[in-house]
Amino acid sequence: MRKLLLPTLIIIAASLLLIRIFYLQVINDTFKLKSENNAIKIQYDYPERGYIFDRNGKLLVSNQASYDIMVIPREIKNIDTLEFCGLLNIEKEDFIKRVAKAKVYSPRLPSVFLSQLNKSEFAAFQEKIRKFEGFYFQKRSLRDYDVDFGANIFGFITQVNERLIAKNPYYNSGDLIGKQGVEESYEEILRGIKGVKYIQKDKYNRQIGSYKEGKYDTIAVQGEDINLTIDAEIQRYGEQLMVNKRGGIVAIEPRTGEILALVTAPSYDPSILVGRQRSKNYTLLYYDSIAKPLYDRGLLAEYPPGSPFKILTGLVALQEGVIDEQTTFVCHHGFSYARGRFMACHGYGPHQLNNGIYNSCNTYFASAYMKTINKYPKPADAVDVWANHLKSFGLGDFMGYDLPTGKRGNVPDSKTYKKIYPNGGWRSTTIVSNAIGQGEVLMTPIQLSNMIATVANEGYYYTPHIIKKIKGGTIDKKFTTKHVTSIDKKYFKPVIQGLFDVYNYGTASSLRVQGIDICGKTGTAENFAKIGGKRVQLKDHSIFVAFAPKDNPKIAIAIMVENGGYGATIAGPIASLMIEKYLRKKITRVDLEKRVLGISLRDQYAKLGGMEAAAAIESSPKDSLAIVKKETTKVKVDTTKKIN
């Protein structure tokens, strides 16, 4: 039996090998197609990307025709290089470098020699392309922007890199792909499907017709159109209000989680990242390390939330039963919470929940927070209970929205304080600054907006998202899944009344819009930065959160203006204006509009940039030239077309 085993295995293996060879060579001739690669030219037909519309059907992004010059290095024969370079206005050295790069990719496969020719360049070269063997045109479509805003929302289109080509077989050299914004998030939906044609060539490399009569050819399928949740008008208006300022605005429809506006400032005209100048303009934007126009502050910037965080402090204290609506704390222009420790406050006298909210009393909320922490024998257990309540609002983690970038923010818990105080000894008085949105708490503008939307809904929210409709498709179910907080619904009503009274009697009384019941909360967050290794206090951030109408709210909004000062100075007026613009499609508070449009913080930012530059030069004088170059870059970007 053992003597038969080896011959049997050999016979079986040989039989399987013969069967496989027969299948590949006779039955399945797709591999024959690959083996005949030298006699076949592959042509791709690139579909148009799907169009992008706003929530009301307004066209935001469409397409325009573009042409790439492709090269197959091994097919280049006896061409007049000087004439070629003259037609395309390039240097001979550039020609040599581009051909050499194409050879590295593949001598026999096509790659992009020169991308994104406009119509006049295409027309001039088209007449003489027959003289240049090895070169041909590849038609593509580039983005055509019908608006000059929303760059951070759309993202941009760029060529794939070699790493992605190796990873994803769909893409070839010269293919375009969406980066950042919805172009990246919905790339597979927007890009469509490439068509492929196989052209037979004879031994003289001449085309003689379709291979196998087009048996393997496929037709291009256009990308699907999408509707965003964005309202184009308030997006445009928000960017206009943020000119000469830095920060973010995020507006959400509370009952659905749909993002109505996502503003980052400064921004830029998305059209400058289209065409032959795309790479140059992107480089200028990328290296502007001072204004950071490519940095989406609405999603990425983590700030101390300031006084709007008092809303959560009050809700958690109510839920934990350490206060009720009538609980009273007396304020003496501040709160002495430990020996030598004093938290200043502009309030005075007895404060309960309602006037504690509309007067933004530090004493009231610091006291409520300490009672929450002191409820439990161990502060570590207490701070974890507190943190879990906050996390039920979607804080301290990525929110799961459908944009490719974001930050967690920070909700400190017992692990946080064990790291900060490894020897223990911390208690409620140590971490009381959390009560007023300072301390270790950090939130992004989109988290702030979702927080106030959750309050407007009296305790639930839907994951914020920017996709409203996909033609021929459905949106992810996670965007229609309700998330309920750990705070009982009954505790939201008195807090909402306090937020309403912020506009009636409190810190936003000058920002009322007649006929619209707005609930809101001003905020002024202390702002520190490390400059030259030193912790420096800068001008406070201006913060505001709001929703309207009070009953059946249709919009919730958060505004963060860096170095803007008091919340009612800049952020508050922007909130009132954005709310009225969305609900009424017009502005009656023209006084507020004029004030906001007239505010420029450029001098403030220039001063900060100068401090950073001076610190860098002091620490490393040899880098001073690089800093000057960065400043110069910003000036160049400003003059490219538009940068807010």
TrEMBL record:
Pfam families: PBP_dimer, Transpeptidase. One of its GO terms (molecular function) is penicillin binding. It is found in: Cell membrane; Membrane. Residues 247-576 form the Penicillin-binding protein transpeptidase domain. Coiled coil: none annotated. It is a single-pass membrane protein. Keywords: Carboxypeptidase, Cell inner membrane, Cell membrane, Cell shape, Cell wall biogenesis/degradation, Hydrolase, Membrane, Peptidoglycan synthesis, Protease, Transmembrane, Transmembrane helix. GO terms for biological process: cell wall organization; peptidoglycan biosynthetic process; proteolysis; regulation of cell shape. Residues 46-210 form the Penicillin-binding protein dimerisation domain. InterPro entries: Beta-lactam/transpept, Beta-lactam/transpept-like, PBP_dimer, PBP_dimer_sf, PCN-bd_Tpept, Penicillin-binding_protein_2. GO terms for cellular component: plasma membrane. This is Penicillin-binding protein 2. It comes from Flavobacterium faecale. The lineage of its organism: Bacteria, Pseudomonadati, Bacteroidota, Flavobacteriia, Flavobacteriales.
